[in-house]
Amino acid sequence: MQPYSELFKTGDIIFAEGDAPSGAFLIESGRIEISTTQFGERRVLGELGPGMLLGEMAVLDESPRTATARALTNCRLTPIDAAQFAERLAAADPVVRALLMSQLTRYRSALATLTGDGTGRPSVSLAQPDDAHAFDKIRLESELRAALERKELEVRLQPIEEIISGRIAGYEALVRWQHPERGAVSPAEFIRLAEETSLILPVGDYILERVCDMLGELQRRGRKPLPFIAVNLSARQLDDAQLVERILAHLRKRDLPPDRLKLEITESLVLDYARIADLLERCHAVGMHVALDDFGTGFSNLGPLLTLSFDQIKLDGSFVKALDRQRGVAVVGVVVAMARALDCDLVAEGVETREQREILHQLGCRYAQGWLVGKPVPLDHVLKA
What we know:
Layout: E1 6-8, E2 13-15, E3 23-29, E4 32-38, E5 41-48, E6 53-54, H1 56-61, E7 68-71, E8 75-81, H2 82-91, H3 94-115, H4 134-149, E9 153-162, E10 168-179, E11 183-185, H5 187-196, H6 200-220, E12 228-233, H7 235-238, H8 243-253, E13 261-266, H9 273-285, E14 289-295, H10 303-307, E15 312-315, H11 317-321, H12 326-341, E16 345-348, H13 354-363, E17 367-369, H14 379-384
Helix pairs in contact: 3-4
């Protein structure tokens, strides 16, 4: 069994240049000298102390030790098995992993030059298959930043129908990106990329401002009643204490009623009850409505509906697909009744057939959204309708 910690006395060699990398160490106490051989002469590279890692680079790329570690004082070290590094490296973000391996390659190259060893090339056996895409991911992030600055992201509107009247009551704003070289980039790809970085905040602001412009244009064209437009919020946007005030400023600038911009929060985000409750309170105080999106996608429980007063529930399209079965009809009927009891409007997503729409109508669902109603289109298509 591997010991919890190992003791080394002053002068002990912990590992020598050329040794196989059996593992690394966390220095608990003491000082360690790192040295290498430069053109046949010993050269001290530096010292390491408590709280620092020792020997991790050779473990990461499975290369022989490129330096010697000697205890300058009595030292206590905690061994770290190579498998621990391998597991964490495999689970790391591919961009972070690729950057780490790039830096390690540079270090090995510089060390080989320093020591006069032309064979000092690292292996990359710990790299994962998707590492090859990591730099493409970095490139795409840079291109997304540029597209945002050049206002190349397009906001399209997918219609939401009031089933009983057949009129288009509102729209959901969906962002699209037509890359000049890659063509259409999947929203799932670039939105996920934006959410992994701080980019989701400027992307979110871009969409909100563009939606307010669209509402302003619909109002200027005399569209009555003025439809609502729903905008999806990300987790990072929910952390923004000034979000509601900034939205209000956009609406007031265009003389728009607050209830025409609807905010949508995906079901997976409502587990933070306190944060969502605060947002709902601030929105309701100024007349803005908030919808619970993707209801029934796997995170479902009724707890949020007991404590959070959403104005609308959006039923995930998987339930609409199940309307061809009696059990599916029964479940959707229960959700419709629940929404009515909670004084919430219900929007059924993913409506693709007239049969689905008719069943929803019979069950008392108020709104339908999906390809049967209409696909996401630019604003000019909406203005011509």
